[in-house]
Every structure is written in structure tokens, then in C-alpha cells.
Design a protein that fits this description.
five-stranded mixed sheet; globular; alpha/beta
Length: about 325
């Protein structure tokens, strides 16, 4: 942007913020009207931000915060596109019909955000929007719910607190844990099995879901194991695997997908089968390759992503005992 454009944008954003908050501009605490009352909130970057006591028009600029709003029974007024996707995160698509896309993981459209007149903007450090906190804060109170690689459960609880739904957040995680325990009890002969999580893209595999995110934590909570190279925290969101090292993705069960839907995963599996080294993997020879809709498995999401992953694990591993 030119200096003139930036100045014009800052003035427009500040004006939009005051229109949204009306008397709430400069108002603190819950002494005013409940619709505009604010409270101080300390976010994951230790920033103290005055946020609405009861936010109604929330823009969620990261996959975990989109997941959180829906898991808590809310619907954001604007969202980011899913990782590697043009539209909403695939596993949430049925919930997001008509919600405008105002960002991607790599960029945020400030004018589109301002046009939605949000009263709260939530994001985390998985998105480049973290670099534009000042500009976003000129539009509406903006909080960062989690640092990069933070515990996803704590990130969810922070988002729940910001949205005024702390009790619902704790209950959501309790319900998830109960369902994980129930699934674990039904694994039968697959109890303790090794599970590999593979994204196939451009003819090459990458290992995903490492660490203690929704994927890795759900697998671990079921008592399942990972191949040696998928244990521990990965160096990034995904770890490319060379075809010469394809044996490192082998496991009792291989959960296989792309960044897209199950159909794109099926097409990618056809390509993978063209490689002799792939067909030699033990999990492949045992016909233990489960194709999944990859968006939930590749996201940094929250409880809804974990539930989607749990559903795939349950359908595959408890039906083969």
C-alpha cells in the first residue's frame, strides 16, 4: 500500500470500530449497556485487550478459532479458508454455508474484515494474520488465542473464555474424552496398533499429525502408536518423505489423504499404487490403508477436528476386530 492508502485505511478502520462499539468506544467494565459492555482479557501474547462481555459478531482468522466457535455453538461472521484450500476447511463445510472468506493462512483482507463490522476478532499464530494485529485491532478488539505449537486444548479453552463460554469449553473437552475412552474400549485386536498418518501431494508423501495436536493426541489417547519417524514433535506442520525413505511411513494401519476430500484421497491412492515401493509396505500388503477426507487430519483445528479424526479411527479400527 502507499502511505496515503495506509492513512486512509487506518482512518476508515478506526471509524468502523467506533460505529460498531458506539458508546463502547472508551467504555470499560460491565457498567454500561450489556450489549456493549467490555472486560479486560489477557491473550496468549500477554496483551491486555478490552473485549465484549458477550461478542455477537466474531471473525475467526485461523482454523483452530473457526473450529472453536462452532464447537461452542456459535457461528462466525467471517472466516479464513482452510489450509491449502480456496474455501472453508472441508470438515466444517456443512456448517459454514454462506459465511464469507476474508483470509487465507497466508494473508488477510482487511477491507473485507472491516466490512463485516465484527465486535471481536480471534486468531492464533498458525496464521499470518498475527503480523497485522495493529491493523486488525483498529477494526475491532483482536485477541491471539495461542502461540505457535501451543497445546490445542488450552488454546480452545482460551478461545472459549474470550467468547464467554468457559463452562461450555470444559464440557466439550470432557465429552470428547468420554468418547475417546469408549472407542478405546472397542479396539479389540487393534489395541496398541501402529498408525501412520500420510498426506499425498504432487506424487509425494508427507507425514502429518505429529506432536500433541488434535490428531496426535487423539491417536495417543487411544493407546495407539506411531512409526518411529512420526513420534515426537515434527519440525513443521507436515514433514515431506522422500520416495527412497517411503518405508518410514509403514505401520499396521496407514491413514491416507490429501488436503481435499475423500474423493481426492482415493485418486491420490491410485497414483501411490503406481509405485512398487508403496505396494511393498506392510500396511498396504495387509490392505490396511484407510482413505480419509484429509482436511480434519491436516488442520491445526480443535475439538471438531479431533472428533472427525476419532470418527475415522473408530470406523476403521473397531470394525476390524
Amino acid at each position: 500500500m502507499t502511505g496515503h492508502t495506509i492513512s486512509r485505511w487506518a482512518a476508515m478502520a478506526a471509524s468502523a470500530a467506533c460505529v460498531v462499539f458506539l458508546a463502547g468506544c472508551g467504555t470499560s467494565g460491565a457498567t454500561g449497556d450489556a450489549a456493549v459492555a467490555t472486560r479486560p482479557f489477557v491473550d496468549a501474547q500477554h496483551r491486555t485487550v478490552d473485549i465484549p462481555v458477550a461478542a455477537k459478531h466474531v471473525v475467526a482468522l485461523s482454523e483452530p478459532t473457526i473450529d472453536a466457535t462452532f464447537a461452542l455453538g456459535m457461528s462466525p461472521v467471517g472466516i479464513t479458508a482452510g489450509r491449502g484450500q480456496q474455501d472453508a476447511p472441508g470438515y466444517l463445510a456443512d456448517r459454514l454455508d454462506g459465511v464469507p472468506i476474508v483470509a487465507t493462512v497466508g494473508a488477510v483482507d482487511l477491507e473485507k474484515v472491516a466490512a463485516l463490522h465484527p465486535d471481536l476478532i480471534v486468531l492464533d499464530e498458525t496464521t499470518s494474520a498475527k503480523e497485522e494485529l495493529d491493523e486488525l485491532s483498529a477494526i475491532a478488539p483482536t485477541i491471539v488465542t495461542a502461540r505457535l505449537k501451543a497445546d490445542w486444548r488450552q488454546a480452545f479453552l482460551t478461545a472459549a473464555d474470550a467468547l464467554g463460554k468457559s463452562a461450555e469449553g470444559r464440557s466439550t473437552l470432557d465429552d470428547l474424552d468420554n468418547d475417546i475412552a469408549a472407542t478405546k474400549s472397542r479396539l479389540g485386536s487393534n489395541a496398541g496398533a501402529s498408525v501412520s498418518v500420510v498426506r499425498w501431494q504432487n506424487g509425494r508423501p508427507a507425514a502429518v499429525g505429529q506432536g500433541a495436536g488434535p490428531v496426535g493426541q487423539t491417536i495417543a489417547a487411544l493407546g495407539l502408536t506411531r512409526p518411529r519417524d512420526q513420534q515426537g514433535e515434527g519440525p513443521g506442520h507436515s514433514v515431506p518423505v522422500s520416495l527412497e525413505m517411503l518405508n518410514t511411513i509403514d505401520a499396521d494401519w496407514i491413514f491416507f489423504g490429501t488436503l481435499g476430500d475423500r474423493a481426492s484421497g482415493e485418486a491420490a491412492l491410485v497414483d501411490a499404487h503406481k509405485l512398487q515401493v508403496f505396494d511393498q509396505l506392510g500396511g498396504v500388503r495387509a490392505n490396511h490403508v484407510a482413505v480419509v477426507a484429509g482436511s480434519a487430519w491436516n488442520t491445526t483445528g480443535g475439538p471438531l477436528a479431533a472428533r472427525s479424526v476419532l470418527g475415522d479411527l473408530s470406523a476403521t479400527l473397531t470394525d476390524n476386530t
